Inverse folding.
C-alpha cells in the first residue's frame, strides 16, 4: 500500500483523490512517519437481504375470510 506524508497530501490533495478513485488503491497518510489516516476509494454498499428482517411486520391469518365476516367477504368479490 502506498504511503504519503501529510504535507505532500495537503499540497496535492485533489490529485491524490483522483488517483485513488481511478486506481482503486488506498493510500496511507503519515505524520512524522506514523500512520495518521487512510484514503480509500468509495464503494457502494451491497444490498443483501437479511433473513427474518420483516418477520414481525406481517401477521398471517389461517382463515382469510373470518376477519371480514361472510357478508363483507361476498361484497368484496
Amino acid at each position: 500500500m502506498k504511503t504519503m506524508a501529510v504535507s505532500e497530501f495537503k499540497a496535492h490533495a485533489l490529485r491524490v483523490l483522483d488517483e485513488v478513485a481511478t486506481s482503486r488503491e488506498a493510500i496511507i497518510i503519515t505524520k512524522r512517519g506514523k500512520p495518521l489516516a487512510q484514503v480509500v476509494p468509495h464503494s457502494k454498499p451491497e444490498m443483501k437481504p437479511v433473513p427474518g428482517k420483516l418477520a414481525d411486520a406481517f401477521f398471517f391469518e389461517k382463515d382469510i375470510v373470518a376477519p371480514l365476516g361472510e357478508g363483507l367477504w361476498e361484497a368484496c368479490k
Summary: The first strand starts at residue 2 and ends at 5. The helical segments are 6-11, 13-23, 70-76.
